[in-house]
Write a sequence for this structure.
């Protein structure tokens, strides 16, 4: 089979007058784009905060996403203390298109079937839904877990399941499902000027897998639920043809409500495709493979533990107004935070991870607070806390210790929660006049 370049292929899909404009996109970089973490800070407050710091933002069509043209205090956006402190997440505008179509609501159980590296999981969790983030490949799952931990999204769990098996093992279990499918990635090729050639055999192979993932998603979604399909590619084989196959195969089961192809020269973002389906009727599972063995973690979820953690936080940090939706649980060595939505899946899904660690438990049963405690609950602290300035926050984000006054109040174990603009930021241990960095 003869091979042609990606840009030449796309040229055959566009009106002739658009070809030159499209190809010109591959000679320029798109601006950096960030998503404001609305569960952490209001959009207007974030804009005011960074504007006062000298940043220059440009609004996008997504209300919580901005192009960043100028920023201060760090060499890169990823190193900035506001990024380390969960105020924003770096995400390309095209990648942010699919998750909002699910309209995720609190109390819903949402499956992100192909979740790594985690940007869309974080979007969905930021809306308040409980998100099952799935990634079967170990290296990619590590990146997923790292990003969930860094943004401290307690309303998440991680699975490592072959996505094609959800339908058979968990029929009509999830309220909504995102299938951001593995694809050829041609839409992101503006980063490198476009690949030299296209592998048509690989593209068709990916399309067959994408159909299987959608089979599984439709079967695993509740009646009345929403399934969103997306790729970061522009060819018809992985997009329109996959959608055509699904709508024909499940014409009595799902309705196609929306589809759109985003092109760099028209939409000022990377190439992307998205389609939204509504499930309207029950369907039989088509996978005859054995169901996934159930592994239920041995957690302590007792009322006694809930009371102990809340008492500790109140006594040590003056934290008394924790949301009723928060749920604490423990293993032998660690105490974690999640939300009460977890109870809807406990003992029903085989999980790889479902926690954000708050405390390590020492051999003599002492609770040792961890960085996440400061980030998640720091804004609620009325004692044993310390407000950082921008310079201190940036130094701490760079994993440096801080020199401070010796009369700062701490817990009996010399811990204190760190804040920036009264938002939770981190945790430190005070040794003489030094705040030892606990961000690592």
């Amino acid at each position: 089979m003869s091979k042609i370049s990606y840009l030449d292929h796309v040229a055959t899909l566009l009106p002739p007058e658009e070809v030159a404009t499209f190809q010109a996109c591959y000679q320029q970089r798109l601006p950096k784009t960030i998503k404001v973490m609305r569960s952490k800070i209001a959009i207007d407050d974030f804009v005011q905060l960074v504007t006062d710091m000298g940043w220059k933002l440009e609004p996008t069509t997504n209300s919580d996403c901005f192009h960043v043209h100028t920023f201060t205090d760090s060499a890169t956006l990823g190193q900035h203390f506001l990024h380390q402190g969960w105020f924003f997440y770096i995400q390309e505008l095209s990648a942010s298109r699919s998750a909002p179509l699910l309209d995720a609501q609190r109390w819903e159980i949402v499956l992100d079937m192909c979740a790594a590296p985690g940007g869309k999981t974080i979007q969905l969790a930021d809306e308040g839904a409980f998100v099952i983030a799935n990634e079967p490949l170990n290296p990619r799952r590590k990146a997923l877990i790292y990003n969930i931990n860094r943004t401290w999204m307690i309303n998440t769990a991680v699975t490592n399941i072959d996505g094609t098996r959800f339908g058979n093992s968990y029929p009509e279990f999830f309220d909504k499902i995102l299938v951001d499918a593995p694809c050829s990635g041609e839409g992101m090729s503006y980063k490198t000027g476009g690949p030299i050639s296209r592998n048509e055999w690989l593209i068709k192979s990916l399309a067959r897998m994408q159909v299987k993932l959608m089979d599984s998603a439709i079967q695993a979604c509740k009646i009345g639920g929403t399934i969103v399909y997306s790729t970061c590619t522009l060819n018809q084989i992985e997009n329109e043809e996959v959608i055509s196959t699904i709508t024909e195969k499940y014409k009595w089961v799902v309705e196609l409500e929306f589809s759109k192809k985003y092109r760099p020269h028209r939409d000022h973002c990377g190439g992307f495709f998205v389609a939204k389906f509504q499930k309207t009727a029950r369907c039989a599972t088509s996978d005859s493979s054995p169901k996934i063995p159930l592994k239920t973690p041995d957690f302590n979820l007792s009322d006694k533990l809930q009371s102990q953690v809340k008492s500790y936080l109140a006594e040590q940090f003056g934290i008394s107004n924790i949301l009723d939706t928060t749920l604490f649980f423990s293993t032998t060595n660690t105490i974690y935070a999640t939300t009460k939505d977890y109870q809807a899946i406990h003992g029903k899904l085989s999980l790889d991870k479902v926690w954000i660690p708050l405390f390590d438990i020492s051999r003599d049963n002492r609770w040792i607070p961890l960085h996440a405690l400061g980030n998640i609950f720091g804004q609620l602290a009325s004692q044993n806390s310390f407000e950082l300035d921008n310079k201190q926050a940036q130094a701490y984000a760079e994993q440096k210790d801080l020199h401070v006054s010796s009369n700062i109040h701490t817990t009996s174990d010399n811990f204190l929660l760190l804040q920036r603009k009264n938002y939770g930021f981190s945790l430190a241990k005070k040794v003489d006049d030094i705040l030892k960095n606990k961000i690592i």
Remarks:
- The chain has 13 helices and 20 strands.
- The radius of gyration is 23 Å.
- The chain has a mean pLDDT of 90.
- Residues 136 and 160 are 4 Å apart (CA to CA).
